[in-house]
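Example A, followed by Example B.
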Amino acid sequence: MKGRPYAALVLSMIFWALSFVWFKVANVDYNPITIVFIRLCIAILFLTGFIWITGRFTPIQKGDRKYFFLLALFEPFLYFLGESFGLTYVSSTVGSVIISTIPVFAVIFAWVIHRERLKLINYLGVILSFIGVLIFITNKSGNIVMNPKGLALMFLAVVSAVGYNMVLRRLAYDYDPVIIVNTQNIIGAILFLPLFLVLDLKDLLATGIVTKSFGSIIFLAIFASCGAFVLYAYSVRFVGIARANIFSNLIPVFTAIFAFFIVGDRLTVRNGIGMAIVIAGLFLSQAWNNRKAGVDAGFTGKGD
């Protein structure tokens, strides 16, 4: 029993790592908005079914509706716009490394906005992570070797996730996590619907169902948006959100491994060093015991 929560955590990180690879596979035949919209719809069906079976439905209080809308605006809407379009310009491994810096930015914003006190080791972790990212995305001459547009879009996802964390802190203690995610997905799907109808529906009808690519969208919905989240939610009951969040540092490692075998991504020695430094910085940036901060950093959008 003691090992189950940790096994569930590792499995959830594997699912989230695979989500970057699955997107690249789906993107061969389908546009980003199509992928996100269908993913959200399938996730809504599964999470709604889960809520109905377990009897976990909780009505949204009238005063909280504006926060749920803002939550969904940040994530999944802006987050998935940044991540999905960003992944069309950068590799799945690069994308996972950039996204993995979300907890670092969450630490910074928590200090700036909420004046949460940090330890010296947290500041060192933040600086170390930025150094790692710079090493990862530049060459020996200091020039950026990644697509600037892709990096900008991925960082839009990072900033959106941080905004999501700031809003989430108002709701996390009053609503079941499954209710929160399902509600934001429903609102997010509504926000994406006009874009899907205007920009992508015609292409989807022309493309039809491509087994491999459409199967990857189903995997994204079931395993990344539903399965990983349920496993993560189960685990935090036993190990706590702050401790569970440390496992998210494994995502870039798993992504690099899966991307190498599935889509043929390659890592240079410099990339590997940069990724190792980023992960080390992430561990240091989260080395704190503040329970509230742990909750905020724990919801990073990976499971949405």
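Example B, a separate protein, is given below in the same form.
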Amino acid sequence: MSRPKPYERFEERYPDLVAAYERLGDAATAAGPLSAREQRLVKVALAVGAAHEGALHSHARRAREAGIGPDELRHTVLLATTTLGFPSMMRAMTWLEDVLNEQ
């Protein structure tokens, strides 16, 4: 998977920091019983909840690469309706559709 250019530039400037950050991510991934598929969906949901457009784009792309279908991703976003509210869910859905329309 290609990385966003800003991330690549940051990594060139601060390689040790990025390496430590990625090790932390690897440790979090390995720390529990969730499958890789479940972890991908959780990451999408967290990006929705945090209202981080770039993170949602990134995690939706990774989920697609892992074989998670568009309807599963849409359902993940739809579940935010009652927790975060309809406007928040709709905002996230537009971000998800950005990624799904790339395919």
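On Example B: The chain has two domains: 1-32, 35-103.
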